[in-house]
Design brief:
Layout: E1 8-14, H1 18-32, H2 37-40, E2 43-48, H3 54-60, E3 69-73, H4 76-82, H5 84-93, E4 101-105, E5 109-111, H6 116-120, E6 128-133, H7 154-161, E7 188-196, H8 197-218, H9 224-236, E8 240-243, E9 250-251, H10 254-259, E10 269-271, H11 285-293, H12 299-315
Helix pairs in contact: 4-5, 5-8, 8-9, 11-12
Length: 316
């Protein structure tokens, strides 16, 4: 199946606030401006937590009616137990329906260029999962009984607790410049993670229970969704897991860009999680002009500003 024929769905978890609605609208603009039917016709599923009134959410976002955008409400019992982590994980619980490849995205990401190489080279022999390595080891609660996440014992201990065989290949964290940290299994930053329908079927069945068991072991780490995805994928024994290069989840972080010798022209997916020059809260319409007028020096932020100017112009 060629990249043109593959059906793509992007899934973003949010809270029901104007700030998140603005980020979603910006993401949608960046997506639809790309050449290719699989971007213009891609489904964008917005998973909304916080016990929201989903009808009110749809009314507040009538602009979305012109696109294939679906607003999904996180069940009350899921949000009550897992809070924001339940919103993030609920993306995996939703059926794939017509999608061949599902991309888990964060609200503070945008596509600057197409992801055609990933789509065209997608493996077909078995369920597959792809992502870019997290910048650093996960943070753990101060009261956690687990080994320190920066230690060589952490991941082997965790895999042992879940009865998972240690993988043949392990990877450096993506901002471990001097390679001082122990290598880890594929532990992905959730700004951009791609999986096919078969992998979603596997992970969707187990992600809630995996997160529950993980929290009991290490406490409620802020990174528990990322860790749970790693555990669930390896534990299945059925998923082809591989890492993506940094252009698929490039941070607006000089350390990340410099380490990987990544220019703005090579970035496919930009994750604007750093706020020292541009804050993601500035993508609301009443703050865009001030952000666009501000001088920035980070090349990723310059690319982000250019895209934001196109977006601003499209709004009139």
């Amino acid at each position: 199946m060629t990249s043109e024929m593959k059906r793509i769905e992007f899934r973003i978890p949010i809270s029901p606030t104007p700030h998140f609605f603005s980020l979603v609208r910006f993401f949608n603009f960046a997506l639809r401006r790309l050449e290719g039917a699989h971007y213009k016709r891609a489904r964008l599923t917005i998973v909304v937590g916080d016990h929201c009134d989903i009808d009110a959410v749809r009314r507040e976002n009538r602009w979305s009616e012109a696109f294939d955008i679906v607003w999904e409400r996180v069940p009350d019992e899921i949000f009550a137990e897992f809070h924001w982590a339940g919103t993030a994980n609920w993306r995996l619980a939703l059926p794939a329906e017509r999608a061949d490849i599902i991309v888990l995205s964060d609200a503070d990401t945008v596509l600057l260029r197409n992801i055609d190489p990933l789509i065209a080279e997608w493996p077909s022999a078995r369920p597959a999962l792809r992502g870019h390595m997290a910048h650093f080891p996960p943070t753990l609660p101060p009261t956690s009984a687990a080994p320190k996440a920066t230690s060589a014992e952490f991941w082997p201990w965790l895999f042992g607790e879940f009865g998972i065989d240690w993988p043949d290949e392990v990877f450096p964290y993506s901002i471990d410049a001097d390679r001082a940290l122990p290598r880890a299994p594929a532990y992905f930053n959730l700004g951009f993670v791609a999986l096919d329908a078969a992998a979603r079927d596997i992970l969707g069945r187990v992600i809630a229970e995996t997160t529950r068991q993980l929290s009991a072991l290490i406490g409620e780490s802020f990174m528990r969704c990322q860790i749970a995805l790693t555990i669930a994928a390896y534990r299945s024994g059925a998923i082809d897991i591989a890492t993506l290069p940094p252009e698929y989840n490039a941070a607006n972080d000089a350390a990340h860009l410099d380490l990987h010798k990544l220019s703005a022209a090579h970035i496919r997916v930009l994750h604007f999680l750093r706020s020292n020059e541009i804050d993601r809260a500035e993508f609301q319409l009443d703050r865009l002009d001030a952000m666009l007028a501000r001088p920035v020096t980070n090349p990723a932020n310059l690319a982000l500003q250019r895209l934001a100017q196109e977006y601003r112009d499209s709004l009139g």
